[in-house]
């Protein structure tokens, strides 16, 4: 289980890697608390250090839809498949929770993330956002 302080430290380390800083959009401490109490957090660690985190919600039972709010990998751990592994864990947990699909938004400038998501099986779906793509995957399509 990931502690709030570990999650806060991780997000502080990757905060500047987002097109719009995470800390400009949310209060990281409060958000970590919300994710840990109401959300789904999946992570990959190397030698005890959090290397990749995927977090969101898998509790929309009316629409049977999960949502990845954030996916990040620390710079020194990139290109090792850790992000894809954490995303796949999230999709599996969402499916186990009764979700049929998982969606996310990714900034159009983030080519590496877009390639990773599409490699996992995400497909682009209609969105009204101009700066981001909305991607979706059926939980059963991920092995």
UniProtKB/TrEMBL annotation:
InterPro entries, alphabetized: Acyl_CoA_acyltransferase, GNAT_dom
Gene3D superfamilies cross-referenced by the UniProt entry: 3.40.630.30
SUPFAM superfamilies: Acyl-CoA N-acyltransferases (Nat) (SSF55729)
Xref: CDD domains: NAT_SF (cd04301)
Boundaries of every N-acetyltransferase domain copy: 1-143
Recorded superkingdom: Bacteria
GO molecular function: acyltransferase activity, transferring groups other than amino-acyl groups
Descriptive protein name: GNAT family N-acetyltransferase
Organism of this sequence: Candidatus Ornithomonoglobus intestinigallinarum
């Amino acid at each position: 289980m990931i502690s709030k302080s570990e999650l806060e430290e991780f997000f502080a380390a990757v905060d500047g890697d987002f097109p719009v800083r995470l800390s400009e959009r949310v209060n990281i401490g409060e958000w970590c608390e919300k994710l840990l109490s109401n959300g789904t957090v999946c992570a990959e660690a190397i030698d005890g250090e959090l290397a990749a985190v995927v977090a969101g919600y898998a509790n929309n039972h009316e629409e049977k839809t999960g949502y990845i709010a954030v996916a990040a990998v620390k710079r020194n751990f990139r290109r090792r498949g850790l992000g894809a592994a954490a995303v796949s864990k999230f999709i599996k947990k969402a499916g186990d929770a009764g979700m049929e699909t998982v969606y996310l938004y990714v900034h159009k400038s983030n080519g590496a993330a877009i390639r990773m998501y599409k490699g996992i099986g995400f497909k682009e779906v209609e969105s009204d956002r101009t700066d981001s793509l909305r991607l979706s995957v059926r939980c059963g399509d991920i092995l």
